Amino acid sequence: MSHVFQPAPIPTVPVVGDARRFPVRRIYCVGRNYVDHAIEMGATGREAPFFFMKPADAVLPAEGEAAVEMHYPTLTKSLHHEVELVCAIGKGGRDIAAADALGHVFGYAVGLDMTRRDLQNEMKKQGRPWSIGKGFDESAPIGAITPAAQVPGIMKAPIALDVNGNVRQLSHIDKLIWSVAETIEHLSRAWALQAGDLIYTGTPAGVDAVVAGDVLEARIEGLSPLRVRIV
Ligand code: MN
Fold first, then answer.
1. Lower CB count within 10 Å: N or C terminus of the chain?
2. Which residues surround ligand 1, an ion (CB under 5 A)?
3. What are the tens digits of pLDDT across the range 122-164?
4. Would 4 be classed as within a structural domain?
5. What is the DSSP code string of 82-133?
6. Mean pLDDT of the region 27-44
7. How many angstroms does the Cα of residue 68 sit away from the middle of ligand 1?
8. Is residue 2 part of a domain?
9. Which pTM does this prediction carry?
10. CA–CA dist 51, 199 (Å, integer)
11. Which of 59, 190, 33 shows the shortest CA–CA distance to 113?
């Protein structure tokens, strides 16, 4: 097939222990999925999971241990970090039952749902879409993906984010309101999932602003850490 111009390259993420890379199709994100974060964002009580998306080419993959550079985005004075477990789908499907969901997972990674919080808050206030606050360029830094079979303890692992060596966020994956399996069940009712989809599963409390020069280190026990330098 010929195109009227060269198609953009497919965004990809490294895979631990594999020279091949994971090609990204879509990025789904879950809002308010830890109780303590839901409270800090003003929620009351358990609500059904809700989703938003980032463009696939918003991924900013770290290559190994070195910090990946993220450019401080335009239009904001409040760039927030949100450390999240990212679930990488290896086998698609619709209406996937939670009991079968983990069979669709290729692996897991540590990710950052970077957020222009001031713009997101303004859009919330006006009842407008979050895209400008959430779906900007380089808004989805991600570490290498570890195949699921290599991290059997992932659902109970600690999750943490340090900024310049100081702990900002610290929780455990088992504090998720909607588990990874339940999230896949809900998502796959609304969209047909396909191999290559990434799901950012939500962040615990402690979200806060970063500035140029800051170094973020995001960790989930058992996964390749993610280091990001804001430039
Ligand atoms: Mn988030």
1. N
2. 82, 113, 203
3. 999 999 999 999 999 999 999 999 999 999 999 999 999 999 9
4. no
5. -EEEEEEESS-BSS--HHHHGGGEEEEEEEE--EEHHHHHHHHHHT--SHHH
6. 88
7. 20
8. no
9. 0.97
10. 10
11. 59
CA–CA dist 26, 194 (Å, integer): 9
Distance 200 CA to ligand 1 centre (A): 7
Q: Evaluate the CA torsion angle 115, 119, 123, 128 in order and state its sign.
A: negative
Give ∠ CA 103-35-200 in degrees, rounded to 5.
40
Q: Region 20-29: what's the mean pLDDT?
A: 98
Which residue, 104, 110, 135, is CA-closest to 203?
110
Instruction: Return the structure tokens found at 217.
Output: 């280190």
CATH number at residue 77: 3.90.850.10
* 6 CA → ligand 1 middle, Å: 33
Ligand 1 center–CA 130 separation, angstroms: 12
Looking at the domain assignment, is residue 109 inside a domain? Answer: yes
Which residue reads 């602003």 in tokens? 209
Looking at the 3D structure of the chain, how many domains does it have?
1
pLDDT in tens, 158-194: 999 999 999 999 999 999 999 999 999 999 999 999 9
pLDDT given for residue 20 in this prediction? 98
What's the pLDDT at 48?
86
Q: Could you list the residue range(s) of the whole structural domain that residue 216 is in? A: 12-230
> What is the distance in A from the centroid of ligand 1 to the CA of 5?
34
**46 lies in some domain:** yes
